[in-house]
Design a protein that fits this description.
This protein has 294 residues and is of the alpha/beta class. It has 10 helices and 5 strands, in the order αααααβββαβαβααα. A 5-stranded mixed β-sheet has the order 3-2-1-4-5, with helices on both faces. Helix 4 packs across helix 5. It starts with a helix and ends with a helix. 20% of the residues are buried.
């Protein structure tokens, strides 16, 4: 049977029968780059891998990356089913939505174990609007004084937030911490007991920390744990693509200058920032002094 008659019988165009697959010149290099990134970031899907490739200079779309991803047998993480637990029956929202930087911060603890089986806890503090991890500090034991110290270190650099969201843990509801936050001007927002979804931004960050950092490392000492945790925090802020931000990092290392500003204006801005920083340090120091010496 001829090719023409066979294609007519099965109703297949002859062009499809004679079509030969073509391979791009950079297919092998792109495949190798995808496999390397997938091995380096084992919990990233093809969308975040695409964002990393574009950031590295590749002109590639997610469809092509997904085709290579499936061809190489790489596993695409399943997307969890969304749950509508943040609204009441009348449609009102339970939690306060962040609208700008330093509007709402949230913090929580994540349990970590070292190689000897001892438990440590990491204090995670994030800005809900920018998704930036402000602090990932690890200690064997936490108290309200240590939490105040961690918050003060961040507030001196980032400023005082309007609201602080947390659960009802003993370190967060301590009288000293609440009084110190009231002196600095920050308002506390405690979620309902047994309702972790009301602190969804921090819970999402905690799950990514467990999945991408804690579960894949063996920590032989507290010093190693602190160094690796700080390195992961910097990577999360400067390099990790966040889907909620359009697959951009919260605080990239460098960016283009938007416009030219006069030199005099820069000096005035620098002096104003220095004045505000001094006032903030004095305010936090006075609040801390009142806590220590009432």
């Amino acid at each position: 049977m001829s090719e023409r008659w066979a294609c007519r019988v099965v109703k297949q165009p002859r062009g499809t029968q004679r079509c030969r697959p073509t391979q791009r010149e950079d297919e092998d290099r792109l495949t190798q780059a995808i496999v390397v990134l997938a091995g380096q970031y084992g919990r990233y899907g093809y969308r975040r891998i695409t964002a990393l490739l574009v950031h590295a200079g590749w002109k590639v779309g997610k469809d092509r990356v997904e085709r290579i991803w499936r061809r190489e047998g790489l596993k695409v993480p399943r997307k969890p089913k969304p749950r509508g637990r943040l609204w009441l029956n009348d449609g009102s929202c339970v939690r306060l939505r962040p609208t700008h930087r330093n509007h709402v911060w949230s913090y929580d603890f994540v349990s970590v174990r070292t190689h000897d089986g001892r438990t440590a806890r990491a204090l995670n503090l994030i800005d809900e609007h920018t998704r930036e991890a402000l602090v990932v500090r690890v200690e064997r034991r936490w108290s309200s004084a240590k939490v105040i110290e961690a918050l003060a270190d961040v507030m001196v650099i980032k400023g005082v937030p309007e609201h602080l969201r947390s659960d009802n843990g003993p370190e967060f509801v301590a009288h000293d911490l609440r009084k110190w936050l009231a002196d600095t001007g920050a308002k506390t927002m405690y979620i309902e007991p047994g309702s972790p979804w009301e602190n969804g931004y921090c819970e999402s960050f905690n799950s990514k920390m467990r999945d991408e950092f804690r579960n894949g490392e063996i920590f032989y000492s507290m010093k190693e744990l602190r160094v690796l945790a700080e390195r992961w925090r910097n990577h999360n802020n400067t390099a990790r693509p966040h889907s909620s931000l359009g697959y951009r990092p919260p605080a990239p290392e460098a960016g283009p200058v938007s416009s030219y500003r006069p030199l005099l204006h820069r000096y005035e801005l620098r002096n104003r920032c220095a004045t505000l920083t001094i006032q903030l340090v004095q305010k936090i120091g006075q609040a801390t002094a009142r806590r220590i010496c009432p």
